[in-house]
Give the backbone structure.
Amino acid sequence: MPLTPVLSAHWDEADSYTLDGYRRHGGYDALALAFAKQPDDVIQLVKDSGLRGRGGAGFPTGMKWGFVPQGDGKPHYLVVNADESEPGACKDVPLMLANPHSLVEGVVIASYAIRANHAFIYIRGEVPHAIRRVASAVREAYAAGLLGQNILGSGFDLEVTVHAGAGAYICGEETALLDSLEGFRGQPRLKPPFPAVAGLYASPTVVNNVETIASVPSIVTNGADWYTSYGSEKSPGVKLFAVSGHVERPGIFEAPMGTTMRELLEWAGGMRKGHRLKFWVPGGSSVPLLTEEHLDVPYTYEDIAAAGSMLGTGTPMVFDETTSVTRAVTRWLEFYKHESCGKCTPCREGTYWLVDLLRRLESGVGSDDDITRINEVSAQIAGRSFCALGDAAATPFPGAMKYFADEIALGTHTAASDLYDPVAATVLAGVNA
Amino acid sequence: MTVTTASTSGDTLEPRPDLVTLTIDGVETSVPKGTLIIRAAEQLGVAVPRFCDHPLLDPVAACRMCLIEVEGMPKPQPACAVTCSDGMVVKTQMTSAVAGEAQRSVMEFLLINHPLDCPICDKGGECPLQNQAMTSGQGDTRFDGPKRTFPKPINLSAQVLLDRERCVSCARCTRFAEQIAGDPFIELLERGSQQQVGIADDVPFNSYYSGNTIQICPVGALTSAMYRFRSRPFDLASTPTACEHCASGCSLRTDSRRNAVMRRLAAVDPEVNEEWNCDKGRFAFRYLESDRRLTSPLVREGGELRPASWDEALVAAANGLKTADGKTGTVTGGRLMVEDAYAFSVFTRRVLGTNDIDFRPKGSSPEEEQFLAARVAGRGLGPTYADLEGAPAVLLVAFEPEDESPIVLLRLRKAAKAGTRVLAVAPAASRGLAKLDGTWIPSVPGSEATALQNLAPDVVDLFGQAGAVVLVGERAAASPGLLTAVGELCDRTGAALGWVPRRAGDRGALDAGLLPTLLPGGRPVADAAARVDTAAIWGAAEVPETAGRDLPTMLKAVEDREISALLMAGVQLDDLPDGAEAALRAAEFVVVLDTHDHAVVQFADVVFPVAAAPEKAGSFVNWEGRVRPSSQPLRTSLMTDARVLSVLGAEMGVAGLESDPVALMAQLEEFSGWEGARVSPPSVAGAPPDPGPGLLLATWRPLLEATHLQSGEPYLAATARAQEVWLSTGEARELGASEGDMITVTGASGSVTAPLVLAEVAAGAVVVTGNAHRALGASGVRVQVAVEGQG
């Protein structure tokens, strides 16, 4: 399959992030096209395109927009979830750096469709460079009359607020994001009511991922048929695949859904020289890992699921044979323990317990009981936590056990560092040898 | 297959549209729409284990202890947060392995970081975690790692202590503070297993309701400084009591051990205090152990009071009162239970032969007496707390519920959250009013009557709605014409009228007829039929016909030698009007019945010690007119006021005065339902304050202050709010003062210096919070205001 750069088509141009750079290639043309349609028709168009949420859950975007009650007399809000924090996910931040106007244009179109007059872009606090780019794009858009009152003479008004988060993984959970945006401590809210009914400031709200919203202008310009001509029936369109890890050329590759990991690996220049693939994680640390046998699985929601994992953010992390799977899983769990918001018992206490057990295995003092226990504790978290963070934390170990039970069992007598030199798995390998 | 309809038998109920029918553990049940699964299960007798769930708090579904299985849902659901729907099939731990396993899992998680310090934990023995670990846990733990620890304990306030390692993050305390009390000073901080309840460094847990957080904590994380490590729950004897501190009328549970009160808790009383009480009611009971308790009778000999036998004291008192020969006045205070108050009513009329009796030691107006006699006394129940909750609008007049009847504030807050409009005619928009999202109708002290008469038509219309309520506080008596105007407003609009006094005994005393023109049950002294009625119930030949004197008139009469003796009960010098000391000194003979050796005792010729509220059975009548029965937690050899009066009456020749509380209450009951004439309502014109120099003082006594009923409890005292001076920004600008500056307010008899708070204050007024009346006088006096040192 070929690369199909849409969002990333002009990232190599020096001014791709400016209004001029964006307009040179037809930027903001979609806006006029959208304004020429009725809002409901824009929603229908997005429904027809089959666009699914690119934040990880893959919920159909047009359907989400359609949930917003219209004519209810309440203000509506669009909130862009730009809190990209998933370990291994690095697609939204580069997109905001290189092509922030596609996001801004998508925000205007989506707001017009759901009849929101105020949109918020909630950006992870640790990426000030991306915050600056988006803020600057918003400023440019205001100055050009693309935001504010009566945009392009359409009679549609939109204010956009760029908001910096304070660096909590949980704030990527949409309701925790809303709490944080409202000035509260970021913790997930009880659902129902769902944000489409009572979201930001208890008003109907759509929360969409950056890539999702940025994809909207191209769909408006090229039509739903164009979009569905890529990918599968259930997973149409193109996607930013961010490949990281032990590859020669880590990077972002925009390609149709259905592309395989083998193709992505090729574009990424293959594994680092002299090394071979051990395992890969298709969509962030929250999904079960896969191995070499899955390299030809098409990157669609349904195929990856059939293979026993999830597409997630579509940002594969690739690990070669220098990697200790025990160490990798322990690091991920340390992340979840650190980021667990504390609200619900299974996630708060379960991650605490899992890290304690995993560290024993990593340092070679674990027991068979510990391995059983990690599986059991993971199962005790899964499906019982308040939000998906707990489910995510319950995923890595059972996933790893499926393919690497023998290696994990070595943790009952040998430290991971004795089996796998930690330095060998890093870019420092061989530097001081 | 034969299809049978449900309505084969005649007694089948029609399906109600507001009900949903579901199955829980195989049992079909119908519950109102919106009922949570956990509540529906309770109604079937199925207790789903829970921590964060509390029926009076919004669901949060955080602890996950109540996970149950709902058919058709892939994951176990929190029973505390999912509402019942038609056709739902629910399986709790009783019938579902999934639910049981999920609950055991959560319990295991809760315990991994919970210390095993039950043997020294205050909660041990009454701990939901301990109990549910037994019912829903697995007896042993598989966790063998290091537990999370914290330095312990930390103070959330002087009174409330937090042991963070015991906390299970249920957020009951933080949700109570925010949702119920409106005091969101505590909040969960940090993340993950480090999550903990915390407080800002510079903002104290400034809540009158903080003790409730301790009671609803499902573990021993929150404890009180006064009870911590002092007792085990299984060593305590629990007695249902009524709170003696104010007219809210809370039901309490008094826990005692070895004849000493160890702690008090809010009892569940959905009609009154629901499951809450205030910190005063919870913590202020150490006065019982004061070394100023009176334990034996005292008689004056050679100018000095000395202990005496009961016989000697009774003879001395009887002789002194007989000598006065009807020229005796009776003054009672707020501590009296209604049975004792009634005994004073009987004793004064039958034994002393006079109507010179007043329960209002603070000095009060004839207008108030007329108002109370006409509109409140003997009127029975209502308006009630439930009426407040259902009211479309509530008007507060001369009443700051947070300080003056804290449970009224909680219910008003509940009402306001559900849509009740609260308005207040007040000198300032207080924090309490803000909690009620209330509308402030500015009025300087003294001009409230005018403000009421000039209410905007749309406001008047609010009170024309069915169910509207006007609540007037006892401070209204100090503003001429105000009680007249309040009554007239209610007459005009049809709004229900509630009078909310400060003290627990006030309404009972009023119903018992402790006013110079009033007999029990709202009967006017002036009404012949009422007197005949009363005499019949008392088995007396007659009751005195002449209207008596109120307290200020009595005091003057003492100085004028028209009254020679005083009978006083539960009165403190501080309660009496200025100049009362001179009258007490002038009185020829003073008999005091009291629990403690107050300053008033020093004027007595005979002193009888009596039992305090927790040492007797009896009742208070709260502001609603609701009888609040109280059992006796403590044994004592002391007698009740009624018993002392009975034996004193016998000594004075009137034998057989009833003293058994049950019989007294039964007799008072006979006075209910009076349909005869009433004292006519007052008609006093308002007298707006004359223009003058300085500002008009507005003040009210705070909930927590240094009174004898709050003595001996330093942790409680330390949570009292600091005194403040409130000025409008305009007045402050004129003064050249800014927020936080120390302001000196000077009155006729002293001055107060406190930091300035810029607030919404009526033009021409200054609010001094905290107890200012000693130094400055009551609301309505003129005071001078200056930045400290510049006066």
In short: Chain A is about 40% helix and 10% strand.
